[in-house]
Amino acid sequence: MSIPHSLRTSITPTELELVASQQLVEIVPLISMERTAFISGAYGPLRPPNKAKVPLWMAFNLKLKKKCHIVAPDWLNVEYLQGKLSLETTKPEFSSLPFRFAEISKVLLDVASDDLENPDRLRSLLKDLREARQAKSRDGLKTLDHSELSLPNLCSMEINEIRPFFVQSMSLMSQLMPIATVGSLGDS
């Protein structure tokens, strides 16, 4: 069931996964296939055991039909994520991660966990990373200033999560600003 537009404050995580499904990932095909044209572009040819880059949606479908193995992106490994978690917990700024890392990692862990090295540890690290970044987001929103908001290196899912609060806060601030400005004019 779809939610009426008037009640929606943000894009759903499922919709973000759909957008992220356009990202290219590497696969090792288990079938041969000629170059095939789709609305989003032409992909292939697929020739086992040569790797090929295809959109995540195509890799997802081929994987479900047991016609490929998905190669994990460079950033989806225990060592890399441990390093990022360490930065998140020791530095005040957000570490740089792929913009759609949350959506892509969720899809890959749901569909291709057998192609990933140590998927349980990856899930745990991604959860810890998400919690550390959410804590930073909350701290950043506590010090929200009407003149500037700078949260570099936020990812799409994180932006989507704070959007409703941010929009509502900025609306209230803009309503209060004229009152504050008028009050300060009377002081002079």
Automatic annotation (TrEMBL):
This is DNA replication complex GINS protein PSF2. It comes from Collybia nuda. Belongs to the GINS2/PSF2 family. One of its GO terms (cellular component) is GINS complex. Its main location: nucleus. Residues 12-71 form the DNA replication complex GINS protein PSF2 N-terminal domain. It is found in: Nucleus. Component of the GINS complex. GO terms for biological process: chromosome segregation; DNA replication; double-strand break repair via break-induced replication. Residues 75-176 form the GINS subunit domain.
